[in-house]
Amino acid sequence: RRRDLGWNTPSMILAVGWLMVAAVIVQLPSWTERNFDAVIAGQSRVIAANPSASAYIGRGLAWQAKGDFAEAAADFEAAGRLDPDSGEPPRLLAWLLATSPKPENRDAQRALELAEEAIAKGDVHPALLFDTLAAAQAEAENFQAAAASAREAARESDDAGNPQVAELLPEIRKRLALYERHQPYRNTDYGRAVPI
Question: Which of 10, 32, 42, 141 has the highest CB neighbour number within 10 Å of its CB?
Fold first, then answer.
């Protein structure tokens, strides 16, 4: 069944904006050099001068990539307070709580709540929303629902108009295969790559 995510022109513009922020972050040279501290310091300067949700998200992603999940979670929470209408901060926090390689950082129930909150806000691309929901459902050991959500994420990621989202399709398919084998996804790319 397909959910109405309430896509309209302003929410599409906001979603494209968040994807552009993510694309810039992914391409930062200091990420590829694994110089997370430089990114954190730079985003901290931006936050000190002019706090914004995007700056907190950027710093949160750097903390997460570095493996400091408590700092990442705090920054995603701060981003959500600054932009309560956006689904991106709760989506990112849900992803962290569902996929962390460290058991002490996982919280299936909260991840599910945050993923549903992000979906209700409807301003993030559906492929990202359903991929996050699937990870949270798998962490909660509801693998049938996780597989269904991952299939929806795969359908939504087959978006020729958005190559950044379309690039997620192979990874979504890998996660779907895990869920079909009744295994949750663990993001082990920390320290090597920027998480989604």
Answer: 42
